[in-house]
Amino acid sequence: MAELDTPRILAKLDALEGYLEELKSIVPLDFGEYQRNFEKRRACERPLQISIETVIDVCSLLVKDMRLGLPGEEDDLFDKLHRAGVISERMRNKLRKMKGLRNILVHEYARVDDRLVYVMLRERLDDFVAFKHEILGFLEGRGNTTMDSGR
């Protein structure tokens, strides 16, 4: 069984929890306010981007530590983890969508769909929580959780 850098993975999951709490505290209650307030939109987009990057980082660490091979691109990370039984097929599909949104936020700024981002902020943050639970469940199944990652 490959040795996992569990403390680093748990630290990233803990940081993810912090980003999600930050998002929950700043996202407006209605889309109109979100759309009208440029500063609020940008203040929400950055922690959302960082949250997605943190998820990708956790996936990269697991693929590397488990010696699942070199991914050709980020989607390969999700496929490798799914095939290894680390994440569910449903989670793999959610991660692909998250990565796509992150790419738009980072690389195609003029194409950002405010409604899509807002829906993610108001209705899809639980996908991050579900990711965290799947990873913690995998680590616990391996006997690899030695510190509490909950807040």
Walk me through what this model shows:
- The protein is mainly alpha-helical.
- It has a single domain, classed as bsu32300-like (Four Helix Bundle (Hemerythrin (Met), subunit A)).
- Helix content is 74%, strand content 0%.
- The protein has seven helices and no strands.
- It has helices at residues 6-26, 31-36, 38-65, 74-83, 89-107, 114-123, 125-141.
- Helix 3 (38-65) packs across helix 4 and helix 3 (38-65) packs across helix 5 (89-107).
- The longest helix is centred in the middle third of the chain and has 28 residues, at 38-65.
- It is elongated, with a radius of gyration of 16 Å.
- The relative contact order is 0.18.
- The model is unreliable at 147-151 (pLDDT under 50).
Let me know the number of strands.
Answer: 0
CA(first)-CA(last) distance? 29 Å
The helix-strand sequence is HHHHHHH
Radius of gyration: 16 Å
Give the structure's gist in a few sentences.
With 151 residues, this protein is an all-alpha fold. The chain has helices spanning 6-26, 31-36, 38-65, 74-83, 89-107, 114-123, 125-141.
Write the layout of secondary structure elements.
Layout: H1 6-26, H2 31-36, H3 38-65, H4 74-83, H5 89-107, H6 114-123, H7 125-141
Keywords:
mainly alpha; elongated; 7 helices; Four Helix Bundle (Hemerythrin (Met), subunit A); 151 residues
